[in-house]
Amino acid sequence: MEEAKYYSVRMRASQNIADQSESKHISGGELISTYSNIKESVNILLEKALTHSRGNADFMQIQFEAIQEPVEYIKPLEVRTNEVASMEAGQVLAKSLLEKAGIPKKTIDKVYENLSQYLEPAGAVLVDVQSGERVDDRKNKGIRVSRIDWLPYHFERWSDFYHIKGNQRLREALALATKVSSHPAAAAELCWSDDPDYVTGYVASKREGYQRITKLKEYGDERGGRIFFVHCSEELDSYIYYLEKKPVFIQWEGSREEDGA
């Protein structure tokens, strides 16, 4: 049986912390853990921060806190990998997938016109599906999706079943994209990492699933972007609360009864 009490374990690491105006984000991450597994969770996040290709951190914070709110269980998005030969081809495909997800072409074009400013925030930016305007008020902070993880062993069983090479990066990204797309306000997500050694990104939506694109930027580029296309007819404050505060477990269908979750 799963223990009833869960903890949010979070990490953030940065460089040049003495000069806050110029501090560089190195790494961040979060796991949901039982009390007995907190040490293991801390070690996973510590290893991630200390071996990141963005550089060596001179500041790191790891903390945990008890989760008081009931946990929601959702199933992972379906995954497809799209092989492309270049960043340009990848971005063309990303635009096409966004259109298939229901985002108007004029909105996509407007987002790409303003793309440079959307690569600056540390978190995600929220863009209205109809107007193409940014609608959150977080400026360079952006929205941080938090309190999300897989139920124990569900990612391993999921990746084995679908013969997908599982790793921590895919585990985290698919969990995050699944949570982001599950809310009524969500239309689609466009994302690629700020890791200079990782050029794969994705477009995700309830309609099209989690669509990996093997090249969305050039190798060595430290700019990453995360854009959430949202329906402003829905309550945005509720969506932001859901993204940042609502605890969610990703659960692979067919294994819940076995785990006693």
What does this molecule look like?
The chain has helices at 38-50, 87-100, 105-113, 115-118, 154-161, 168-182, 236-245, 256-259, and strands at residues 7-15, 24-33, 59-66, 72-74, 79-82, 125-128, 148-150, 186-192, 201-205, 209-213, 225-230, 248-250. It has 261 residues and is of the alpha/beta class. The chain has two domains: 7-68, no CATH class; 75-258, no CATH class. It has a six-stranded mixed beta sheet with strand order 5-10-9-8-11-6, sandwiched between helices. Strands 2-1-3 form a three-stranded antiparallel beta sheet, with helices on one face. A hairpin with an 8-residue loop joins strand 8 (186-192) and strand 9. It is globular and about 50 Å long. The N and C termini lie close together (7 Å). Mean pLDDT is 89; it is low at 255-261.
What's the arrangement of secondary structure elements?
Blueprint: E1 7-15, E2 24-33, H1 38-50, E3 59-66, E4 72-74, E5 79-82, H2 87-100, H3 105-113, H4 115-118, E6 125-128, E7 148-150, H5 154-161, H6 168-182, E8 186-192, E9 201-205, E10 209-213, E11 225-230, H7 236-245, E12 248-250, H8 256-259
Parallel strand pairs: 4-12, 5-10, 6-11, 7-12
Antiparallel strand pairs: 1-2, 1-3, 8-9, 8-11, 9-10
EC number: 6.2.1.14
GO molecular function: 6-carboxyhexanoate-CoA ligase activity
Family: Belongs to the BioW family.
